[in-house]
Automatic annotation (TrEMBL):
<dbReference type="InterPro" id="IPR036641">
    <property type="entry name" value="HPT_dom_sf"/>
</dbReference>
<feature type="domain" description="HPt">
    <location>
        <begin position="19"/>
        <end position="117"/>
    </location>
</feature>
<dbReference type="Pfam" id="PF01627">
    <property type="entry name" value="Hpt"/>
</dbReference>
<keyword id="KW-0902">Two-component regulatory system</keyword>
<dbReference type="InterPro" id="IPR008207">
    <property type="entry name" value="Sig_transdc_His_kin_Hpt_dom"/>
</dbReference>
<keyword id="KW-0597">Phosphoprotein</keyword>
<protein>
    <submittedName>
        <fullName>Hpt domain-containing protein</fullName>
    </submittedName>
</protein>
<feature type="modified residue" description="Phosphohistidine">
    <location>
        <position position="58"/>
    </location>
</feature>
């Protein structure tokens, strides 16, 4: 699994240099936060909670961007954009589930990269 397939490698190197000893703490916090966020996102999908799922995808997009996980941030942006300005009755929940599945898959890949390359 290539790091550059999931992370902006150049930005990640800069972040690692800037954060120095705190980089590992940032990555650990990101993984722990993500692992608690994903079940909430899945629950929001089950409940057809447009606002909740949109807000969670927005914050996950930002958190992913903060650790330079560009592909994961992009997946969350796609879901956020898909849900924007929609009511529950207007959402194609099958498509929303596919976008959420992509987020779950990409996070699994990001987590595997983190385990291989950072710890």
């Amino acid at each position: 699994m290539k790091l550059q397939d999931h992370f902006d490698s150049e930005s990640l190197d800069i972040l690692r240099d800037v954060m120095d000893d705190e980089f590992d703490d940032l990555i650990t916090l990101f993984v722990n936060d993500s692992e608690s966020r994903l079940p909430k996102m899945n629950a929001a999908w089950v409940q057809q909670d447009v606002a909740g799922l949109g807000n969670l995808s927005h914050s996950f997009k930002g958190a992913s961007g903060n650790v330079c996980a560009a592909a994961l941030s992009h997946c969350n942006k796609e879901l956020e954009d898909f849900l924007r300005d929609k009511e529950a009755d207007d959402v194609d929940w099958t498509e929303a589930r596919q976008l959420l599945a992509a987020i779950n898959q990409e996070f699994a890949a990001v987590k595997e990269c983190i385990q291989r390359h950072f710890h």
